[in-house]
Amino acid sequence: MENYIIILFNGFGSSKLWWEYKFDKKVDLIKLNFLDEIKKIGKTYTFNQPFFNTDYYITNENKKNNEIWSKIYKKYKPHSSNINFKLEDLDYKNICEKVYNNVKNKYGPNKKYILIGHSYGGPIALLFSKLYYKDCVLCCLLDNPSYTMEYFNKYNESDKKYILDKYPSNKELKNSIKLIKTSKNPKEKNKEINDISILVGVKSCEDRIKYYDPKLYVKTIFFKRLTKDKNKLDEDEKYFIKQNKKEKKLFEKDKNLINYIEFDNADHYIWNNQEYSNKIIQIIKSNIH
Fold it and tell me: Which of 63, 129, 147, 229 is a good FRET partner for 165, with 20 to 30 A between their CA atoms?
């Protein structure tokens, strides 16, 4: 057990805080036991990147919400003020190499990795499991974007052209980051933050095409949220359900697919539900012995 290192790949804009707390529209967050249970399996390393920290600078237009989040940031510090990054830092392979080297330097060689990727972190965990499959014993994906080409190619072309024209090099990105840090105009600041979010989305879709490989390299488990009442689905939810079915079919004959589990009425942060959290932990433990 002590040789396992659990690498937690956060969703975009997320924080290591959300592995052990959940937000319920109040300043006092609700404590979860998910991370505590993970730590019983092995030591943990949380993947965080400076571009996640743009949330630190957002000014919420709703005054009440802004006051709540200001207090949450003061009390829990989910993000830091560091948003300094370069375009190459968004590349999935570069992220994997950085995480691998950081984990190896921190915990030493000859360790076995368990990967847990949530949302945006899911495709990165898959690529990590391919690049370092000899060191990985299990890859768990929590409500990751569907691993199908339809998803990769869906990005709006006008958004893509606009954002790549805006950030042709690190010089323009640096200027945008400076504006976020220094602008006194909330709308101007929020627009730059939104553009960086679009940039990450565009680069992510490009990388999912560039590194696409319909093969699993280690034992892999998909955990997906599923909405039971199909009459209440919006178009995005219908789209993701459709793509999840294609994803499941893509991997169903792969010897490394352990399970593809769907949770009814689950939150995007599936482990917020104690029953689902318990099941995820139980399944992880049963597949590393």
Answer: 147
